[in-house]
Amino acid sequence: MCGIAGSTDAAPEVLTAMQACLSHRGPDGSGLWRDPTSGAGLVHTRLAIIDLSPGGAQPQLSEDGRFALTYNGEIFNYRPLRAALEAGGERFRTESDTEVLLRLLQRQGAAGLDRVVGMFAFALWDRERHELLLGRDRLGIKPLLYAALPGGDLAFASEMAALRRHPGLDLALDRVALSEYLACLYVPAPRTIHRGIRKLPPGHVLRWAPQRPIAIERYWQPAFTGGRELGLDDAVEELMPLLRRAIADHMVADVPVGCFLSGGVDSAVIAALMAEELRQRGGTALSTFTMGFDEAAYDESEPAREVAARIGSRHTELRAGAHLADRAMAMVARFGEPFGNPTALLVEELSRQAREHVTVALVGDGGDEVFAGYPRYRGGLLAQRYRRLPAMLRDGVAAPLAAFIPESSRGLHGLRRAREFLQGAGAPDAEMYAGWVEYFTTEERAALLGESAPPRSPIAALYRAAPSAAPLDAMQQTDLLSFLPGNLLAYGDAMSMAHGLELRLPFLDHRLVEAVGRLSPALRFARGQKTLLKALAARLLPPAILRRPKRGFNPPMGVWLRRDLAPLVAERLKPHRLAALGIAWEPVERLLAEHRRGLRDHALKIWALLVLDLWHAHEQAA
């Protein structure tokens, strides 16, 4: 796990400056390589995980000197890949997965990525052809930003701050990106908040060559088009070996490995299988880490403690509080653009303290998307039956009355979900789902940004493009391409790597994702949310753990904003500050009033606006 950056033409001092911005991602070493004939350069900062010797240093050159590679991530199947390459005549100089990736790309180019199991972002420079190949893993676990430069060159980096050290970037505000941030609380790929900087989407490669247009190609995407009909027990028999293999592969490391453990089934399954794997290897007890809250509706420390006791892990409990919001400006600096999910603050604190014990932590992110865990999936399926009701009852009575349903800001979401269901279930599937997933509606964004027509819905567009029209297929497919990489994986990488901690996500092993996606929606939701995962968990954990309701790993932002963070809201959200971003004050004023009076829980919308103001202040100071 590392940081990477580079350019098709950059002075050494520019490369050095880019490298310095990535030191937190790679505290164990750094490297810089520059092609004297073309001016292309690659930089790397190293977090040593596999092959701690100098043999794992980067950038790494092929034996003939033609190819240079800088790479961030882990290739979990590097040993069998190495064996296959050796059978084909390759001879290796190191024990690193880096050299395996280099030899594979040297032989097969981007086509070789079909054989890779892992998480990665890489840049491969071909000195002979003066061509650059960028690649990002299938599901977007590792980030990669790039920018087209005046004169036709291209620069790239793991993080925005490093990329911005390169001269010639267009840093103008992208108004479409601003609108999509208000919708999603993150800027969806391929956009960033800056007009001249883009994210390489998951499962894509980018090719650059002089005097040719940049070519971006998709090499993989999830395909939830399930048609396989199996019994639940037969499905578990198929999936359990895949899950065990994913856990074992994700534990490969030459450094200490632990696990983030909540009270939910996702992380409990991972922790149980990790503990089992460690026992089989004759290793020491698993280290687990959890974060608790003073607000009972959000706190899962007790069930996490029960799981830890059950599997015999060395368990560490941390406490969260509103003081974590003091880290918001640092969070903005890490992302380099507005990012409105406050869970990032929790992950940073958890990562900071876990790093004192381990260098790698496995996490349960992706479990909801892959195994259909979100309550909105139940809503999407229920909507198909709700639409059979008479239109007069549905649209003339239920939807108007829904506006009067109150809601809680204390972590109890049932009433809010009921209101959103009644207001949206009568709409076409794409618009309905977007209404549940997006925060500021298209109408609200039009009012905030002074647009004459509602802006596009990024979520609805993805939903309509899903390869299967079956509602569960389309919902999961949409989340795997949007909420997962743009939100969960983005803050997981940024906040953990801020402290040199590598997070690994075994539920996102693409072999497991593909296997689940081939199963029928009726099987995936046969007994409600996470039917398959709970059936797997039943073979590992006691029933009491599986029966606990889902809470999610979220801070009590509604409570914090009413109490501890109220002065911050009053200080930052002012008409002139928002006007500097082209945001109208009147809709914000109404939103704040509704939240203060307890009519609506607008906590995440308010936090998103606060973060936007903090980002703008950071930009002005830069």
Backbone shape: globular
Q: What's the domain count? A: 3
Helix content: 40-55%
Low confidence ranges: none
Described by strand count, sense and barrel closure, the largest sheet is:
6 strands, antiparallel
CATH architecture of the largest domain: 4-Layer Sandwich
Proportion of residues in β-strands: 5-15%
Instruction: Give the end-to-end Cα distance, rounded to a whole number of Å.
Output: 28 Å
Please give the number of β-strands: 17
* Count of helical regions: 28
How big is the Rg?
A: 24 Å
Q: Which sequence of strands runs across the widest sheet?
A: 2-3-1-9-8-10
CATH class of the largest domain: Alpha Beta
Q: Structural class of the secondary elements?
A: alpha+beta
The CATH superfamily name of the largest domain is Aminohydrolase, N-terminal nucleophile (Ntn) domain
Fill in the CATH topology of the largest domain: Glutamine Phosphoribosylpyrophosphate, subunit 1, domain 1
Mean pLDDT: 92
Structure description:
- Strand 11 and strand 12 form a beta hairpin.
- This protein has 28 helices and 17 strands.
- Helices cover 44% and strands 14% of the residues.
- The strands form three sheets. It has a six-stranded antiparallel sheet. A six-stranded antiparallel sheet has the order 4-5-6-7-11-12, with helices on one face. Strands 15-14-13-16-17 form a five-stranded parallel sheet, sandwiched between helices.
- It has 622 residues and is an alpha+beta fold.
